Task: structure prediction
Amino acid sequence: MVAKFDLTDDSVVVVIGTGAGGGVVSNELAQKGVKVVALEAGGRYLPEDYINDEWESFGQLAWTDPRTTSGDWRVAKDFSGLPAWIVKAVGGTTIHWAGASLRFQDHEWKAKTTYGEIEGANLLDWPIDAEEMAPWYDKAEAKLGVTRTGDRAGLPGNNNFKVLEKGAKALGYEEVHTGRMAINSADYDDRMACQQTGFCFQGCKWGAKWSAAYTDIPRGEATGNLEVRDHAHVARILHDDSGKVTGVEYFDKDGNLQMQKARIVCVAGNSFESPRLLLNSASEMFPNGLANSSDQVGRNYMRHMTGSVYAVFDKPVRMWRGTTMAGIVRDEARHDPSRGFVGGYELETLSLGIPFMAAFLNPGAWGRSFTSALDSYENMAGLWIVGEDMPQATNRVTLSDVKDQWGLPVANVNFSDHPNDVAMRNHAYAQGEAIYNAVGATRTFPTPPYPSTHNLGTNRMSEKPEDGVCNKWGQTHDIANLFISDGSQFTTGAAENPTLTIVALAIRQADFIAREMAAGNI
Amino acid sequence: MSKIERQGLTRRALLARSVAAGALVVTGAGFLAAPDAAWAMEVSVISEHQMATLIQMARDIYPHDRIADQFYAIAVKGYDADDKKALVEEGVAALDAAAQAAGHADYISMGWEEDRVSILQAMEDSGFFQTVRGGLVTGLYNQKDVWPIFGYEGESFSKGGYIERGFDDINWL
Ligand SMILES: Cc1cc2nc3c(=O)[nH]c(=O)nc-3n(C[C@H](O)[C@H](O)[C@H](O)COP(=O)(O)OP(=O)(O)OC[C@H]3O[C@@H](n4cnc5c(N)ncnc54)[C@H](O)[C@@H]3O)c2cc1C
Ligand code: SF4
Result:
């Protein structure tokens, strides 16, 4: 039975956003008997609604409310109003995500200690470590059904993977396989096995890929402890004179402003909206925004060092067939400063359809150099680079002069690469090209980063209150009943795709919140 | 001469053929047609010359020799609109002026792609060029009918995915 809570019920936990962080924390709390109201700006879509068509799906799911950009990243020039490619819907970006699910390497929890002082980087160690996270990773892997963990087999390799594997092995790479994927290689947890349809980014129509939209959300609702309100855009978090949060104001389906009371508020709107919301909630008592005594809200925005390498061969590959990202080379993920940069990167298979390839292969390019690449689309293979980028205080989300449909200042996203990011990207481009050249590529394309899919760090965790926004539980240093529950709590980004870690942190946070509530501490 | 020119065909004949070919519907006075009349296109706000220039320009920006004019025409047909008229008039006039300065009658009568491209390069930063180029990214490449020309197969859910249809059929590695 789906719960319905009163707007004046001040015993509920309000969760803002229902993606990897918010969707999981909502369900986990509900499973423990905690009453939850989850407010989600987007609508509800299930596998039967997903569309196997890149632009149509984008129109259905993507966050297209206005945002502005600045800084020297190319996205600010080519896609100035679209700094990120993320979802606005119940389930958040776990509808779009490709399912790559990797644990951090042990040293990545301690970036500052491991890498030392890096000029221009605002590095910090996480206030938690690998040992502490291990049991939570176990739970997250079981929830997501990650292949190659537990007793779950790997996915079969598709054409794009086979090209990557052959080239990588020819170069001497050893850790090459079809990935640790939150995509079923066999039926698991009431979800069927992957059918190799190849539209993982557009929402899995078979439900083979884990998404909060059709797992955690309905399961939480089934407990009778979770109410999800869709088309509910939170405008502001409210607090009382003692500085505790008391509820939130949101615009409902009909555009009316509502006020929901709360005992605890969890912010999980992804790394642009979460800091934006804290900044937009500024008050007389907190003139710089909520939980911002450190002035770190919105800062240290990380998007992973990314890029792609596509390559053309003399014979067909048909890379779009099958699982989009089930293929990885992990050998470069290690920290080895002899390569000319700190941290490391992963290489993962990737393919785009013709519509997105035309938009993203080399944005703004035209003429035969560009079109002859597309003419060889059928013979193309592709990989995506994902590596650790440096947190920088000036890479940040601030409030823009532009307002959204609710009259609220939107997020401006300022980003420029750190020299370490550039050195790592150049290294990765060269290695990616070498992989494909080893299998006879006739032409390679070092493709620039797309609008961000991984957005991290804008409300980071820190040991000391002056260094960050929240503590090791995601609880804000300034306000005990205000939590950060999404990727914005990342202290540093590590080389791995972030969602498994977001989910592990959310499970752990729910456990903490339930315990603290029971103990009467919050 | 451009490959697209006004033809001395009756509107009725064009209508019949274009419908038969599943192409554009002709509803007004001025029209464009392929030399072989395989398809036709009517313009009501901008001139036939302006539309023909846009189609040529579209091909010069994203040249794919295996893609027929018809698809470029579909990609730019939205410029035949009141709110686009001024942009098109000014843009095409600039293209023709540059062509004339180089000793040609107009843009579409320049025989070599390289010559037309050098004119486009010189106006690459103009609003006209950027609008036309930007619009083509979806206007051309998001046409489902051009996907097979690139070998792209589109959605596969209705066919059960590729699990039994060659997701791993690469045979030359
Ligand atoms: C194409 C693509 C592929 C990806 N592939 C992978 C992958 O293979 N592996 C991996 O680890 N990660 C992947 N990611 C990244 C992954 O999806 C994100 O890291 C993850 O979903 C982020 O979780 P989150 O909780 O921070 O935010 P989200 O999942 O984005 O959820 C935030 C939610 O909050 C809602 N919201 C925002 N503001 C408000 C507001 N004011 N009021 C109410 N609701 C609000 C949003 O609508 C959204 O639904 C991919 C992302 C994309 C786009
Ligand atoms: S390839 Fe597999 S995981 Fe991806 S959308 Fe298709 S069935 Fe789902």
Remarks:
- Chain B touches chain A through 34 residues (CB under 8 Å).
- The first strand of chain B starts at residue 31 and ends at 33.
- Chain B has a mean pLDDT of 85.
